[in-house]
Write a structure and sequence with these properties.
The chain is 36% helix and 20% strand. With 322 residues, it is α/β, with parallel strands linked by helices. The chain has a domain of 207 residues: Ribonuclease Z/Hydroxyacylglutathione hydrolase-like (Metallo-beta-lactamase, Chain A, 4-Layer Sandwich). The strands form three sheets. It has a six-stranded mixed sheet. Strands 7-8-9-10-13-14 form a six-stranded mixed sheet. The protein starts with 8 loop residues before the first helix and ends in a 10-residue tail after the last helix.
Length: 322
């Protein structure tokens, strides 16, 4: 039985050359034909190289190729082509610098009906102006949950754009013109948004999915390479973990995900990216719960003002001086 040599490649070659030269010297003493020294070295080098190539090809390369192919396959899958927006679908991502909140304006270009996801009070005038400039009619102003870091702009938008209907989860405990339950849909023009219950950050968190366009709005449930905190507002780490793994991560992997916040300048992600790279949600559930219970985050600065206001202002107007 052959045993694997403990010598390195350089040592093997050195011993091979020494042995070859000794054999050559013995042959010279017996009068046999011998190649000049330089040609001997070249021959040895070619022989060793050929043997090494054969060995590498039959063993090391096989393992390396398998690893590279698996990695490449993962990369290709992660970068599967995103769905292209249909020609009659409008999308605009908006940002509030103070709270690092993203709002999303979606519309049917044909009917001009629009919806606005997670509006911010301080940006309501900006949003209303944009909607007017684009010739849209705001049908719904939706919140993914009852926010604790800013006051929603839904109440003020109802004043600025009469006819706007405020929308939030029935489980949120907040007031609104329309409340949603799991898998209920809202329609704007011919487009449909499905509300998917994803509690954990709060009881009333929802992820809004537009299947035809391959997009989902995850609120604070799933952030880019992170997630919402679970230490206030009925937060529950195990519930959030289930929501992400059983609801969001089961969407098609090429779906684009848009969170309610980002603090590092990222704008979007995908299901495939977060399943592979999210440092919190790639852990097992017990490790995730332990991590979330030891974040030691400061008390939210706006929570005492934002939560009481957000319970009400989806239904009632904000004063004009707001």
């Amino acid at each position: 039985m052959l045993r694997k040599s403990s010598f390195g490649e350089g040592e093997i070659m050195r011993l091979f050359i020494i042995g070859f030269r000794r054999a050559a010297a013995a042959a010279a003493g017996s009068g046999l034909f011998v190649l000049p020294c330089q040609q001997q070295t070249r021959l040895v080098t070619r022989t060793v190289a050929s043997s090494a190539a054969a060995y590498i090809k039959s063993s090391t390369t096989c393992s390396f190729a398998q690893t590279a192919a698996a990695s490449l396959a993962q990369g290709v899958k992660m970068l599967d082509a995103r769905k292209t927006f249909t020609e009659d679908f409008f999308f605009r991502q908006l940002f509030d610098e103070q709270s690092h909140t993203y709002s999303y304006l979606l519309a049917d270009i044909t009917s001009k009906e629009a919806i606005l996801i997670d509006p911010v009070l301080e940006q309501a005038k900006r949003d209303a102006q944009l909607i007017g400039e684009l010739g849209f009619t705001l049908k719904y102003a939706l919140n993914t949950h009852m926010h604790a870091d800013h006051i929603t702009g839904t109440g003020y938008l109802k004043q600025l754009l009469p006819g706007t209907v405020s929308v939030i989860s029935q489980s949120s405990g907040a007031k609104a013109d329309k409340t949603l339950v799991d898998n209920e849909t809202v329609q704007f023009g011919r487009h449909v948004l499905r509300a998917m219950s994803t509690p954990g950050h709060t009881n009333g968190c929802m992820t809004f999915v537009v299947e035809e366009q391959g997009i989902a709005f995850t609120g604070d449930t799933l952030l880019i390479r992170g997630c919402g905190r679970t230490d206030f507002q009925e937060g529950d780490s195990r519930s959030l973990y289930r929501s992400v793994h059983e609801r969001i991560f089961t969407l098609p992997e090429n779906f684009r995900l848009f969170p309610a916040h980002d603090y590092k300048g990222n704008m979007e992600t995908t299901v495939a990216e977060e399943k592979r790279y999210n440092p919190r949600l790639t852990k097992d559930v017990d490790a995730f719960v332990e991590l979330m219970s030891n974040l030691n985050l400061p008390y939210p600065k706006m929570i005492d003002k934002a939560v009481p206001a957000n319970r009400e202002c989806g239904l009632f107007d904000i004063p004009k001086e707001a």
